[in-house]
């Protein structure tokens, strides 16, 4: 009988440990943590129009990355079944390797690694990024 109690205690302990670790993922945290000087380009694809732009201007990269670096995102919901998006953003480092890819839906949320992350302060500068489609050369899809 004591052996079953030990096994049950171990199983409960493991389950509690996993539940604790999972709950820690809901603590607000930064998703983008890169020095803007380490970014070579940002590719932005519009899910609305099908247009794509590549941002290589250092001032524009500085603005976008600095804005995203400041935001702490709160994991909200699993989005495996959700389709469609506003902007698909891919950030490349100076070596030309993909640093981060995520989907931006307005000024308050991004979709990253099968989850929607919310910015409760609505401080994503979505309008700045969206206006780049009027400034930069657009590559039609």
Furnish the topology, listing elements before pairings.
Elements: H1 2-24, E1 39-46, E2 51-55, H2 58-69, E3 74-78, E4 87-93, E5 98-104, E6 109-112, E7 115-118, H3 126-135, E8 139-140
Antiparallel strand pairs: 1-2, 1-4, 2-8, 3-7, 4-5, 5-6, 6-7
Short summary of the structure?
Helices cover 32% and strands 30% of the residues. The chain is an alpha+beta fold and 141 residues long. An 8-stranded antiparallel sheet has the order 3-7-6-5-4-1-2-8.
List keywords for this structure.
single chain, 141 residues, Immunoglobulin-like, eight-stranded antiparallel sheet
Number of helices: 3
Bulk shape: elongated
Poorly predicted ranges? none
> What is the overall pLDDT average?
87
Total individual domains: 1
The CATH architecture term is Sandwich
Molecular structure report:
The protein has 141 residues and is an alpha+beta fold. It has one domain: Immunoglobulin-like (Sandwich). It is 32% helix and 30% strand. It is built from three helices and eight strands. It has helices at 2-24, 58-69, 126-135; strands spanning 39-46, 51-55, 74-78, 87-93, 98-104, 109-112, 115-118, 139-140. The protein has an eight-stranded antiparallel beta sheet with strand order 3-7-6-5-4-1-2-8. A hairpin with a 4-residue loop joins strand 4 (87-93) and strand 5 (98-104). The longest helix has 23 residues, at 2-24. The model has no long low-confidence stretch (mean pLDDT 87).
């Amino acid at each position: 009988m004591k052996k079953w109690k030990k096994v049950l205690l171990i199983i409960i302990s493991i389950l509690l440990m996993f539940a604790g670790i999972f709950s820690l993922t809901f603590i607000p945290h930064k998703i983008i943590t890169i020095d803007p000087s380490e970014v070579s380009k940002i590719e932005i694809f519009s899910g609305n129009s099908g247009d794509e732009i590549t941002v290589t201007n250092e001032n524009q990269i500085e603005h976008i990355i600095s804005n995203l670096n400041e935001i702490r995102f709160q994991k909200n919901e699993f989005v495996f079944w959700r389709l469609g998006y506003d902007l698909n953003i891919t950030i490349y480092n100076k070596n030309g390797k993909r640093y981060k890819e995520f989907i931006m839906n307005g000024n308050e949320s991004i979709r990253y690694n099968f989850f929607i992350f919310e910015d409760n302060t609505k401080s994503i500068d979505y309008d700045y990024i969206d206006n780049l489609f009027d400034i930069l050369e657009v590559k039609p899809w």
